[in-house]
Amino acid sequence: MQGTSGIILRKIDVTPYMLQAQMPEGGTKEVEYNTKNFLIVALLHPQLRLTGRELLSRRKLVDKIEECDGTLLVEEADYSKMKQAFETVRGFTLNDMELVERVLEAEEVEVEETSPKP
């Protein structure tokens, strides 16, 4: 909670982006990078050595990623899990650079809390 005006969330763009992939027969082809899928793969990656309980604790975040419409807003606790995953997992490539940047440099935004209507 920051002051009385709202809460601070991290804003992450999870829209797909296009890559130039090298084809086995030669040349390149434009392909779509499935941002949501790769974000989830990093969040649950074996290199994180998650316990069963830690894996299950990430289910709501995985669901939120899958269901979002292109912009993911996460609270600091969930952002910390994502950041830790992207700082721990090894083997990222040039294709992943855009996603890694989107996560590790996620913008902080202040969001007004609203009360449920009676």
Question: Could you explain the architecture of this structure?
Answer:
There is one protein chain. The protein is an alpha+beta fold and 118 residues long. The protein has helices at residues 35-43, 52-57, 59-67, 76-88, 97-104, and strands at residues 7-13, 17-22, 28-33, 71-74, 107-111. The protein has one domain (7-111). The chain is 38% helix and 24% strand. The radius of gyration is 17 Å and the shape is globular. The model has no long low-confidence stretch (mean pLDDT 92).
Give a brief description.
Helices cover 38% and strands 24% of the residues.
Core attributes:
118 residues, alpha+beta, 3-stranded antiparallel sheet, two-stranded antiparallel ribbon, 5 helices, globular
Helix and strand layout, with pairings?
Layout lengths: L6 E7 L3 E6 L5 E6 L1 H9 L8 H6 L1 H9 L3 E4 L1 H13 L8 H8 L2 E5 L7
Antiparallel strand pairs: 1-4, 1-5, 2-3
Counting DSSP E segments of at least 2 residues, the number of strands comes to 5
Radius of gyration: 17 Å
Strand composition percent: 15-25%
Helicity range: 25-40%
- Order of adjacent strands in the largest pleated sheet: 4-1-5
**Distance between the first and last residues' Cα:** 24 Å
The parts where pLDDT drops under 50 for at least 5 residues are none
Number of domains: 1
Q: What is the structural class?
A: alpha+beta
Order of helical and strand elements: EEEHHHEHHE
Please summarize the sheet with the most strands.
Answer: 3 strands, antiparallel
Return the average pLDDT rounded to an integer: 92
> Shape from CA axes?
globular
Q: Count of helices? A: 5
